[in-house]
Amino acid sequence: MFCTTCAQPNPSGAAVCQRCGAPMPAAGAQRSSRVISQRRGLVLALPAIAVAASLIIASGAREFRELAIGQQIASAVRAGDPAAIPASAADLPAAAALRAAADENRNLRQRAIVLLGAGDPAAAAELLRIAVMQLPSDSDARDLLAAAEAADLAAQRGELDRASATGNLLAIERIARGLASRLDGSADAAAMRDLADRSAPIALARDADLWLVAPDGGNGMLVTDNVPVARPVWSPDRTRLAFVSSDFLSGDLPALLFVIDATGENLHPVYYAAHPNAIPSWSPDGRSIALTSVEDWSLTAETGRLTIAAVALDGGDPIDIGENLGAHATTPAWSPDRHAIAFISRPFQTDPTLSALSGPATVMLWSDDGVLRNLSGNALPGANRLLWNRDGHSLIVLSRDLAGADAGSGTLGSVSEIDLSTGGITTIADAIPTSSSGWGPASSPEGGRIAWVEGARSVIVRNENGERQEIDAGRILSGAVTWSPGGSELLAVAAEPGRPSARITFGPAGTEIVDAPLRYDLEWPTGTPQWSAALNPSAGTDTERPQPGAGLDR
User: Fold this and answer.
1) What is the edge-to-edge ordering of all strands in the sheet holding 202-206?
2) From edge to edge, which strands make up the β-sheet containing 449-454?
3) Chain segment 360-398, per-residue pLDDT in tens
4) What confidence score (pLDDT) does residue 153 get?
5) Which residues contact 414 (CB under 8 A, 6 or more apart)?
6) 523 contacts 226 by C-beta, under 8 angstroms
């Protein structure tokens, strides 16, 4: 214990201080003094605690109010309703942004009203969709949008009626597909899709002119008769056509490769050394075409080198595919990702009595980095036509055994699939008569089915699960098949243009076959009908337009 006079520590129980002699207080009294001191400190601290507590409570209330205001602002922004923002938050950035959106909506509505008055409901609807997306609570914009869409729908139906009256197949198909998309889920949508498929024009050469013909053969539209036309093929987006043009009276001259709009406009040559029997192959982006070239080949002497030219439609220099191959290169097929071309290679013949294309075939793959790959080795010596699966992971190869046919043994062709990742080759079909194997299989637009002809009159449709359906077309077939753009029908081309081809419809009730009287050029070079493009823009996984310095832009 301590002396309260001199602060000298003393033994417990001492009566007087050992230093100064002053009386020492009792222990209980000292404890009471300490308690009193502690209580005095607490009393002094209470006001500070009260102030702090009041500050905390005030801060919490303010935060609560700010939280409530924030929630109101967030709710107003979500609803797109400036009126729902409390007055106390009028100066906050979110409120200012919402008011600006409301002002912008007024402008959009006014512009849409002007467009509606000018008879352009489609443009008005585009503006109003922006307004409704920006401010969902804008009932005026919603009402105007409904009116604009109704007016646009009526306008589209009017356009469809006018196109039908004039027989404009391209317009009928385009408008009907657009209406089917807008009316998706309704019975009217199904009717529009059916009309689009029934109206989608088939491209063919007739009397060396380019025609678009309705699937039923009833209507026809002359695209051009300015130059001789052979082997017309659709561009991937079906807005243009490519074809080869040559002097039919002489097989000794190279053909020209032409491109023309499906409307008949913008006819222009793009390559000057095409093989007269070349079948153009469009790149999926529609910017280039590959075909068999005779630039280094003499059609008269049948000497030199057959090669493949990849022609850029913007005027760039053609690329010589297989330039250093040391063999012929023919029959190109562009990959769905546009970065590769598959083709058939055959060795140069030393025997002048043999055709340049009578040697054993090899399926090759050229990549746009210039790399060549041998895909088939010696496994498919009769390879004759190539088709890419739409996923770009495999190739379908149609082969024919020329040696067996020449020997009169009736040896037949086959359909095989090459897996590009493993290199494995699988036989899909065998025992196909050689007479019908001069035509390649055709892939459906969605990519899940392929079709080809077996025998004189049977069409085979194989789905992605490998299941096979055999259809008797009820007539002698040429071997050429082509799908409708919608994929609901298949055209099996007759062996003779004077006889109707078979239009095969796949529906819920089963398969139906109707006549399609399509007159086309049969003699070489042929004008075989083509309904849909070999590839479309959505095929594969990389169909964006190439950047400068990439692919064929080099």
Assistant:
1) 202-206, 209-213, 220-224
2) 442-443, 449-454, 458-463, 468-472
3) 999 999 998 889 999 999 999 999 899 998 888 999 999
4) 92
5) 382, 398, 399, 427, 428, 429, 430, 431, 432
6) no
In the structure encoding, which two tokens stand for residue 385, read together?
Answer: 């036509």
Q: How far is CA 42 from the centre of its chain?
A: 78
Looking at domain 200-553, its CATH architecture is 6 Propeller (2.120)
What is the distance between the alpha carbons of residues 176 and 158, in angstroms, rounded to a whole number? 11
Cβ atoms of residues 242 and 229 within 8 Å: no
Q: Which amino acid is at 198?
A: R
* 427-437 core/surface letters (b: 16 or more CB in 10 A; e: else): ebbeebbbbbb
| Rg for the chain, CA atoms, rounded | 41
Sole residue written with tokens 């490998």: 466
Q: Indicate the SS3 state at residue 464.
A: coil
Instruction: Give me the pLDDT at residue 344, please.
Output: 96
Instruction: Give the pLDDT confidence score for residue 313 in this predicted structure.
Output: 94
What is d(CA 339, CA 322) in angstroms, rounded to the nearest whole number? 15
Q: Residue 345: enclosing H or E segment and its boundaries?
A: strand 340-346
H or E segment to which residue 32 belongs: helix 27-79
pLDDT score recorded for residue 39: 41
Burial class (CB in 10 A: 0-12, 13-18, 19+), 354: exposed
* Sign, CA torsion 74/77/81/86: positive
Residue in this structure with the two tokens 């006819």, named with its chain if needed: 267
- How many residues are given for the chain? 554
* CB 518 within 8 Å of CB 497: yes
Q: Tokens 């702090």 — which residue?
A: 52
- The per-residue pLDDT for 211 is 96
Phi and psi angles of residue 438, each rounded to the nearest 5 degrees, phi first: -75, -10
Strand partners, 311: 289
pLDDT value at position 71? 60
Q: Which residues of the chain have pLDDT under 50?
A: 28-65, 405-409, 539-554
Instruction: Please answer whether residues 210 and 228 qualify as being in contact, where contact means their C-beta atoms are separated by less than 8 angstroms.
Output: no
Residue recorded with tokens 């699960």: 465
Q: Give residue 250's pLDDT.
A: 60
Helix boundaries (H) for 211-334: none
> Residues near 515 by Cβ (< 8 Å), separated by ≥ 6?
217, 500, 501, 502, 503
Print the SS3 string covering 355-403: CCCCCCCEEEEEECCCCEEECCCCCCCCEEEEEECCCCCEEEEEECCHH
Query: Are the CB atoms for 142 and 132 separated by under 8 Å?
Result: yes
Alpha carbons 247 and 326: distance in angstroms, whole number = 30
Maximum C-alpha span of the chain:
147
What pLDDT was estimated at residue 380?
93
For the chain, the distance separating the N- and C-terminal CA atoms, rounded to the nearest angstrom, is 100
- Tokens 């030219």 correspond to 309
Q: DSSP 3-state helix, strand, coil percentages of the chain (rounded to 5)?
A: 30, 30, 40
